[in-house]
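Tutorial sheet, problem 5. The two components below are modelled jointly, 722 residues in total.
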Amino acid sequence: MIDYKLHIPGPVNVSDETYQAMSTPVMGHRSQDFVALYQSCQPNLKKLFQTEDPVFLSTSSAWGVMEGSIRNLTKKKVLCCMCGAFSDKWLDVSRRSGKEADGLQVDWGRNIDPGELRNQLSSGQYDVVTLVHNETSCGMMNPLLEIMEVLRDFPEVISVIDTVSSFSVVPIPKDDWGIDVILTGSQKALAMPPGLALLSVSERAFARAEQVEGRGYYFDFLEFRKNHEKGMTPSTPVIPLIHALNHTLDKIFKEGVEERHQRHSDLNGMVHAWVESKGFELLPEKQFASKSLSCVKNNLEIDLAGFVDTLRREKKISIDGGYGKMKGKTFRISNMGDESTDTMAHLLGQMDEILPRFMAS
Amino acid sequence: MIDYKLHIPGPVNVSDETYQAMSTPVMGHRSQDFVALYQSCQPNLKKLFQTEDPVFLSTSSAWGVMEGSIRNLTKKKVLCCMCGAFSDKWLDVSRRSGKEADGLQVDWGRNIDPGELRNQLSSGQYDVVTLVHNETSCGMMNPLLEIMEVLRDFPEVISVIDTVSSFSVVPIPKDDWGIDVILTGSQKALAMPPGLALLSVSERAFARAEQVEGRGYYFDFLEFRKNHEKGMTPSTPVIPLIHALNHTLDKIFKEGVEERHQRHSDLNGMVHAWVESKGFELLPEKQFASKSLSCVKNNLEIDLAGFVDTLRREKKISIDGGYGKMKGKTFRISNMGDESTDTMAHLLGQMDEILPRFMAS
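Model answer (C-alpha cells):
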C-alpha cells in the first residue's frame, strides 16, 4: 500500500467517499437496477458535457475509445494534431488500426495553430481530425474554440477531441462548439480510479459510423447507442466505477460547475505563482498553459530525480519528474480533482522545504 | 443500493473483503509501486492458468479480448463453435471486425462435437477457432480436452478459448492441453466486480500476431507482451480491480486450487439434486452440465417470472429467468465464487419455500 499522496497528473488522489461509493454492491448489468443507475447518471452527464447527445460509458481507458473513434469514423484519412506524447501516439494508433493517417506536428509544449490546421484540411484529403485538448505530457492546452471554428468550415471532417485532463476543469460546450466526439477518462479531473472512459457522439459522427466497415463490436458507436436507448452498455460494464461516477457527479453539481472551474483556475494560479517565485518557467507559453496541471521547465537545473524522490519519501507527496523524452527536463504538478487552497498550499510548502537541497551549487 | 444477494451467473456476489481490497489507494501506473503490484500477481496467475506464458490484464470486459483475439490472429478465416448466446455472437463480432468467419452451430444446450470440428477443420480454410468452454447462457460445458486433442492435428489453427464462467471452477491446464489463447473475466467464478479481463497467450499465437495487420493498439497482444516485460499494461489499467485480483489470488491459494474445484463440484451437485428432487430437468445432458451454474428447463411450466421476482423481493435472492431466447423456458442458478454448503442450502431452502405458489395448478 502506498504511503504518499498523488499530485501526478493522473491518476490523482481518490477520496475515501469515492472509494466508499465504489463499494456499493454490484448488480446484474441487464437488470432494472442497473438501468436505473445508468439512467440516473445521464442528466448530470449531459449537463457536464453541455450536450443533447447521449453520453456513453466505456469499460476501458481513454485509449480504447481513442482507437475506437478511428475505427468508427475513418473512410478516407485521419489528420492527427501532434503536440506531445499522447497526441503523437494517436498517429501510430491510427495506422496500426489499418487507417491512412498524417500528422500535423509541432514541438512539444507548443500549441496547434488553427491557421496551419486550416491549410492542412484545405487539401480535402481528410475526413477525421484528432486533437488532444490538454496535452498532459506538456501541460499545454490547445485553443479549442479557435480550432473548432476552423473545423466548422470543413463539414465532412469529423472532430475527435480528447479532453482527458481538461474535462470539468474548463468549460467545453460540446454542442455550441460543434464537437463531434468528445472523450475523457475517470482518473484525471474527475478524481476517480482509472478504468472508465466517457464519450459523447454527435449525429454527424453516428451517420459517418454507419458508412464505415470493420468498426468491430466493443467500441462500436452504433452498438453503444443501441444499448444506451435501453439504459445499458454493449458489454459488461465496470459497475463500481459507475457507482463512483454517480457519486462524483452529485459532488460536482453540489459544488457548482462554474465554481469548480474557478477553483481549478485559482489552484493552478497558486502553482504558477510558485513557479515564478522560484525562478522556474512553464514549458508552454502562459496563454496556452493547462489549468489542471503545470509542466515546469527545469531551467534551474536542479537534481530533479532527487527532488521528486525526496518529496515522495520524506514529505509523502508524489509529483512527476517528466514524461518520456521530457524526463529530467520538466516536472509536472497536478491541481486536478478534489484539491483545495489548503492542500495546494501544503504541497507548495513541502516543496519549498526541500528544494534548496537540490539546487545546483 | 440493491437489497438482494446475487445468484445469477455473473456478476456474482462480491465479498466485503474484496471491496475493501478495491479501496486500496491507486498509484501511478508507470511507477515502481505499480510494477510491484503487477508482478506480485504473476506467479499466482501462472499457477492458476497452469502456464509458463505471461498472463495479461486487460481493462475491459471479456468481449474486448474476444474481439481483440480475432483482430490479432486471423489471416485466413475464423471458425466459431456456436452453442449458445455468447459463442453465437462471436461469429457476428468476427465479421464486424472485418474478418471472414463461419460457424459450427449446434442447438443451444448441446455440446460441440469434436468429430464434427475435425471435419470442418479438414477443409483447410481456417486459421483460428473460437470456443466458449462453458456456455453461460445454457449452463453447458464443452468437452475441452477432446476438442484440444482435435486441434493438435491442425497446427496452423490457433485456438481461442473463452473460460469466462469455468476458470478456477474446473482444471484447465493451458500448456498441457495446448491452448493458445485462454481468456476470462473478473465477475464470474473469481467473484470480483466486472471490468477486468485476464488472458494468456502462447508463443504460437504471438508468432501469428506478428504477421497480422490492423491489430490496433488497445488489445494488441504484442503491445501487452512488451509492457508485461516491464511489469506494466499498455494503457492505464483499472487498478482497483488489480488490487482485488491480488487479494482474490491469495484467497484462492489459501483455500487450495483442488479444494476450490471440489467445492464448486459439490455445490453444483447440491443444485442438481434439488433440480431432480423437484422434477425439473437440466437443459444440457448431464455429462456436459456446467459445474459453475445450472441451467434448468422449465419443464414443470411454473410461472417463472413470478418465481424469480418473488425470490428477489421476498427472499432477497436473485437468480436468472433465462437468457435471450431462453427467457421463461429456463432458469439459471450460480454456484460460483465464495459460495459454501451453507449459502447454497439457504438458497435452495428459500426456493423451496416459495416454489409451490408458482406451480401450474
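Marking note: Chain A touches chain B through 56 residues (CB under 8 Å). Full credit if you identified this.
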